[in-house]
Amino acid sequence: MSDNDTATGRPAPQYMVVSDVLRQRIRDGVYQVGSHLPTESELCEEFSISRHTTREALRRLSEAGLIHRRQGSGSRVLSTEPRNHYVHAMKSLDQLFAYASDTRLRFLDIRQGHPDAAAGIPTDAKWLRIEALRLERDEDVPICFSLVYIDLRFGGVKKLLKNYQGAIYQLIETNFGVEVAEVEQVIEVVRVPPRAAEVLDQDPDAWVARVVRRYLDGEGTLLLASVNYHPVDHFSYQMRMTRQGGRLV
Amino acid sequence: MSDNDTATGRPAPQYMVVSDVLRQRIRDGVYQVGSHLPTESELCEEFSISRHTTREALRRLSEAGLIHRRQGSGSRVLSTEPRNHYVHAMKSLDQLFAYASDTRLRFLDIRQGHPDAAAGIPTDAKWLRIEALRLERDEDVPICFSLVYIDLRFGGVKKLLKNYQGAIYQLIETNFGVEVAEVEQVIEVVRVPPRAAEVLDQDPDAWVARVVRRYLDGEGTLLLASVNYHPVDHFSYQMRMTRQGGRLV
DNA sequence: CAGTGGTCTAGACCACCCC
DNA sequence: GGGTGGTCTAGACCACTGA
Q1: Which is nearest to A100 in space by CA: A165, A193, A169?
Q2: Are A188 and B85 inside 8 Å of each other by CB?
Q3: Domain map of chain A by residue range?
Q4: Which of A4, A66, B68, B242 is deepest in the core (most CB within 10 A)?
């Protein structure tokens, strides 16, 4: 649990002692989830420490996701257990994609249309629908066939797509001042749909890896979604998870 | 890049201004990757701020993975770009697995043997080799066929496996005082190997999703590895990535 | 409005690293 | 031994929250 001086011989700093005590109290229900921690000044008094030290202790709890602090309001208990024991971290979403970055896009079709069910978009709404092939640079080997559905308020991207090579979500981020805050991804293995079989040159009854990605903004609104069909012999999805924090967090 | 007061109308705090300046200098190569930042006291003087404010600025760079700070040594520049823009976070590794948690294991075979190539273990070494089927609870439908390779120094788990239901890495963590610090995972779609076809009741030429997981300790030593074959019609792998930090980080 | 957390200062002592 | 970052104190003013 705590990691006070168990490893190193020297005593743990006070902020860590205090943070561990508070952590234990949260686990024990002394401070219930949803309720508020004592204020900084109360904690200063109880532990006879300066405000700075108190804040350092609270910072740790906050970083561990156990409490949420809000100016003027206080520190609310969020959870009994730290979140994010393991993280898969990446510089950019590029690493989500199951292909190397040195690729290019060939657009097959762009028009308004109704999304397919796999995209997780209500199929009664109209979205900009893009068909594209992702190819290895300088080669004609297709890496995947992609259907991209874009909210019509970003319909202006249509003009920008010509010769665009990167990920489409980035195009929308830079041109419409929105920010992708969250991505959901589902990987499954399915029978190749007819259109994908055609452009990927697959047997009609072949299996393909289908990767569906949904890009959401900070409020959970869907900005765009993509359905990507990968021939199985070129599909490899790698990730690396790391345990969070050496000492505590 | 910076997020000083662009959104809110009010001015950014000093530590954020300073941290942005330093960040820009790192990008511009004023402070080269591998070299050291000025010391805290030098930065205090340059920006006419207190040490506390300087440390807050440096803390941000450290959290962003741009610098590494070491007592007695200084702040070394690690990278020009922040890491961890996006994270896939999970409380435990259970969420790595492409199946619900309400499952059970049926062991088919346990003995010493040579790992297969897919596990990424030198095949000349001997490891404890476990064959198991993961089944839905109360049903005989197999979710996946697993080959688990365990370093022989944990050979004692053999006795503990009987009636064990959970993830094997946890068994080793609790019984041998080691900690999984890192997991590598690769998902691919391959032809079913004969043995897997047999126990999963698949056609000899069927495709299966192969998920290879390698569990490493803090020093990068492989503790165990597993190769899991999932019938494609039951395979679904979901993940959710979140952009890190509202304001900067 | 009173009380909260957010920012900031000017000091201090210490453990650690490297010369 | 001299300099680094790590911890800690005792103050201060401010922005924000909520009654």
Answers
A1: A165
A2: no
A3: 14-77, 86-237
A4: A66
- Report the distance separating Cα B111 and Cα B148, nearest Å: 11
How far apart (Å, rounded) are the C-alpha atoms in residues A232 and B119? 19
b/e map A83-110, b = 16+ CB within 10 Å: ebbbbbbbeebebbbbbeeebbbebeeb
Give the A:B interface size as CB pairs under 8 Å: 133
What length is written for chain B? 249
Taking the C1' atom of every nucleotide in all shown strands and the CA of B48, the nearest one is C9
Question: Which bases of chain D are under 7 A from a protein CB atom?
Answer: 2-12, 15-18
A72 touches strand C (CB under 7 A): yes
Task: Please state, in angstroms and rounded to a whole number, the distance separating the CA atoms of residues A62 and B207.
Answer: 46
Neighbours of A27 (CB within 10 A): 13
Strand partners, B25: none
The gap between B55 CA and C11 C1' (Å) is 16
> Which chain A residues are Cβ-neighbours of B241 within 8 angstroms?
88, 90, 93, 96, 182-185
In tens, the pLDDT along A134-146 reads: 988 777 788 899 9
From residue B4, alpha-carbon distances to A211, B18, B146, B247 in Å are 37, 11, 51, 9
* Number of residues assigned to chain A: 249
Two structure tokens written together for A169:
């979500």
State the pLDDT at residue B2: 43
Cβ-defined contact of B243 to A92 (cutoff 8 Å): no
Closest-approach residue (CA) in chain B for A95: B86
Instruction: Name the class of domain B14-77.
Output: mainly alpha
Query: How many Å apart are CA B63 and CA B46, to the nearest integer?
Result: 22
What is the tens place of the pLDDT at every residue in B107-152? 999 989 888 888 878 777 789 999 999 988 777 788 899 999 998 8
B49 touches strand C (CB under 7 A): yes
Structure tokens at B231: 């019938």
Residue B185 or A5, more confident: B185
> Has residue B94 got a pLDDT over 80?
no
Domains A14-77 and A86-237 share a fold: no
Question: Six-digit token pair at B180?
Answer: 């999984």
The residues pairing with A238 across neighbouring beta strands, listed in sequence order, are B186
| CATH class in words for A86-237 | alpha beta
pTM (two decimals): 0.69
The percent of chain A in helix, strand and coil, each rounded to the nearest 5, is: 30, 35, 40
Please give the protein residue whose CA is closest to the C1' of the nucleotide D7. Answer: A13
C-alpha B92/C-alpha B179 separation (Å) is: 13
Task: Assess A159–B contact: CB distance below 8 Å, yes or no.
Answer: no
